[in-house]
Amino acid sequence: MTAQTEVVDRTAEGTRSGARSRRLGSRLWADRWVYVFLLPTAVLFSAYTIWPIISSWYYSMLDWTGLGSDRSFIGLDNYLEAYHDPLFWSSLSITLLFVVVTVPIRVALALAAALVLNNPRLPFARLFRTALFVPVVTTTAIIGIVAGFVFDPGGGPVNSFLQELGIVDEPIDFLGSPHAALATVMGVHIWKWLGITLVYWLAALQTVPTELYEAAQVDGASRWRAFRHITVPLLRPFTVIIVLLTAVETLQVFDLVLTMTAGGPFFATNVTEVYIYSQAFASSSPRLGYGAALGVLFGIVTLVLALVQAVGLRYVQRTRSAT
C-alpha cells in the first residue's frame, strides 16, 4: 500500500512539474517579443557593465602596463601595494572630505530653494527652476574648462570683480593654490549639481498635503512653526534618501576635477578617481593592473554607500507605512 502511494505521489508530482514547465514555456512564448526587445539592452549592459567589472577583477591581479601582451599574474600584490600606498589613502581622504563638505551644503541649499520655488504663488517659479537645473544638463568637462577661465588670476572675472570692490588687493590663484583649489572645485561642484537635489526636494514637498498648511494657517501658526511641525517631520524619511543619493553622486567628480585642476596643485585635489586614472593611463609608465586594483577598492567603497542607501530606503518605506 505504501509503495503504491509513493508511486502515485511521484506520478502526481511529475505531472505537476510537467504542467508547470508547459505553463512556463507558454508564458515565455507569449512574451517572446518582450525578450526580443530586451535583448539589445541585455547585450549592451553585459558588454559595457558586466564584462568591464569582471575584467577589472582579473586585471587587478596582473602586473601589466595595458600595452602589449607582456603580463604576469601576481595575485593580490597590487592590493597589498595599495594598502601601503600613502597617495591612495590621501586621495580617498580627499574624496571623503569632498563628500562630507559638499553634501550638507548642497542638500541645505537645495531644500531652501525648493521651499521657495514650491510656492504656487511665486511668479516665474518655473523659470527659476529651469535656471537652477540648466547646469545639471551642461557637460561637466565644459564647465570645468570655463571655470578655469573664470577663476584665472590673470584677468578672470572673479578676481577682477573682487579687486574692483576692494575686497582683495592682489588676485587670488583659486586653482593654483593648494589652500584654495579644493574649496573652489567644491563650490563649482555644488553649483553644477544643485539642480538635481532641488528636483529631489520638490518631489518630496509634493507629498505634503496642502490641507495641513491650510489648517495651520487657520489656527494662527506662523510659517516657521508650520515648517517646523509639519514640513520637517513629513520630510524626514525623504532626507535619508536624498542625502545618500547626493553622497553617491558626489563620489563621481572625475571629469570636473580633471578639467579644473587635474588633481593638483601638489595633490590638493587628487580625488580617488583622478588618482586611478593617473596610475592606469596618464603616467609615463602606465600600470593598468594597479589602476584596476585601485578601482576595485574604490568600487567597494561605493558599494558600501549603496548598501547604506538600500537600508535607508527600507527605513523610509517602514516609516511611510507606519504613518
TrEMBL record:
Membrane topology, as annotated: Multi-pass membrane protein
Keyword Phosphoprotein: no
Segments passing through the bilayer: 33-54, 87-118, 130-151, 190-213, 234-254, 288-311
GO biological process, one term: transmembrane transport
Top-rank taxon: Bacteria
Keyword Transmembrane appears in the UniProt entry: yes
Family per similarity comment: Belongs to the binding-protein-dependent transport system permease family.
Name of the protein described by the UniProt record: Multiple sugar transport system permease protein
Species per Swiss-Prot/TrEMBL record: Actinopolymorpha pittospori
